[in-house]
Amino acid sequence: MKGIILLVLGIGLLHTTSAAIHTLKNFYTAASGDIDFPEFIIVGLVDNTPYLYFDSNTKTAVPKTEWMKKNVGADYWDSMTQIGIGSHQTFKNNIQVAKDRFNQSKSTGVHIVQMMCGCEWDDETGVTEGFNQHGYDGEDFIAFDLKTTKWIAPTPQAVITKHKWDSNTANNEYWKNYITQECIDWLKKYVDYGKNTLMRTVPPSVSLFQKTPSSPVTCHATGFYPSDVMVSWQKDGQDHHEDVEYGETLPNDDGTFQKSSHLTVTPEDRKNSKYQCVVQVKGIKEDFIEVLPVPDAANVVPIIGGVVALLLVVVAVVVGVVIWKKRSKKGFVPASTSDTDSENSGKAAPQI
């Protein structure tokens, strides 16, 4: 299963950035094949914090935060439950259509379709943006162009869907209105509901791990909030990017986040140079630094595979979001929803 990829760009700028950009993202994910999680999941995120969850096993939309429980009534959850139930079959059908398009009709493996729609709002400048993107098996499938109110098909298999959806101008106007108005209105409400939580800052706990003296060194930051973070390496006081692999920003089940960065370095180079991991969290002026010690058997801390696997299960079950590795303008690329009735495609997203 592909993971969430939230790349934070701009090393050293997290402490100086003053813009407060809020996001509302709704993920619809359907999967087929031999899976051990629900075949259809909806997750809503405000500022990357889950606020809503629905799956095809429970068939019930539920709040994921106390501020949603407190401020939103039963009618809202009933409506979201009906949207989830109605969308389940549409997305399930989309998997088969996508398999047909990609000549995978007889495939019994795992296949995933996904939609991500939502908006961004800068509460200082008032600038807003919106998006509606679809993907299949970890690759871009089709996306809505807000400027032209047309659909963009980056792959030949999506051209049929593009023509079908482009011909439904009423549905495209619906999406334009949702992205530019409804979504922004709801985002502002949610931010107000959860401001005490969403505006907080929580410092990270930073640790260094290494399986063996020849394996990469992992710098793991966890328990921080907000999700805007940079986990980087320095060599002798200078930014170091060579042989560095940046991990994913993932949610913890307590509402905070975690992120790792992996450095490949020889024991000899560690003896001759000073390496340190630097963690910066937006809104917190302090840098959190862990110095990589000179290699010694006593300094090798094994990573327990079971713990890592458990974290991935928590992400899959609690968040239920699978995002393809390619990055769109938003830094996301959802997994596919293929050819479905264009009216249903408009109704598939939560009417929030």
Automatic annotation (TrEMBL):
The keyword Thylakoid does not apply. Residues 332-352 are annotated as: Disordered. Keywords: Glycoprotein, Membrane, Signal, Transmembrane, Transmembrane helix. Pfam families: C1-set, MHC_I. GO terms for biological process: immune response. The chain crosses the membrane at residues 300-324. Residues 335-345 have a biased composition (Polar residues). InterPro entries: Ig-like_dom, Ig-like_dom_sf, Ig-like_fold, Ig_C1-set, MHC_class-I_related, MHC_I-like_Ag-recog, MHC_I-like_Ag-recog_sf, MHC_I/II-like_Ag-recog. It comes from the Eukaryota. Residues 1-19 form the signal peptide. The keyword NAD does not apply. Residues 204-280 form the Ig-like domain. GO terms for cellular component: external side of plasma membrane; extracellular space. Belongs to the MHC class I family. This is MHC class I alpha chain. It comes from Oncorhynchus mykiss. The lineage of its organism: Eukaryota, Metazoa, Chordata, Craniata, Vertebrata. The gene is oncmyk-UBA.
